[in-house]
Amino acid sequence: MYVPPDWPEEVRPPGSPDWETSAVAWLLDAVPPDYRSYGVLRRHPVALSRMAVHHVGAAIEAARAGYRNAAVELKDHLPPHAVEAVLETYRQEGPRLVRLAAAIDLVDRALRGEPFVPRL
Predict the structure, then answer these.
(1) What PROSITE patterns has UniProt attached to this entry (predicted)?
(2) Nearest 5°: CA angle at 102, between 111 and 11?
């Protein structure tokens, strides 16, 4: 079965045995640990994937805001090299979150029954 290039390695391809189980396990790793205590999210993977979409989207926005404000907020509390290290952390974390959001989107679409076809 075809899966897009950004499909997470930890998730089996849609339609394969136990693929939804692997999707749930992977999605639970992408959201706060407390989400594991809600049985409804395990029983209804689409609910979990939608919550993951929103959670990671909010994390991206928070990282962008943090990056924009870090220098001003921290300049009186940290030495310049530490402020730069914080900014570098945001520069690394931002793209990681964007990649995660793209992968979550793919899994969400598959859970909702959208087929993937290769593009020429």
Answers:
(1) PYROKININ
(2) 50
CA distance 21 to 77: 46
Consecutive H or E run containing 96: helix 80-111
pLDDT, tens digit (0-9, with 9 covering 90-100), for 40-66: 999 999 999 999 999 999 999 999 999
DSSP per-residue letters across 21-88: HHHHHHHHHHS-GGGGG-HHHHH-HHHHHHHHHHHHHHHHHHHHHHHHHHHHHHTTTS-HHHHHHHHH
pTM of the model: 0.92
Question: b/e per residue, 45-54, with b = 16+ CB within 10 A?
Answer: beebbbbbbe
CA distance 23 to 26: 5
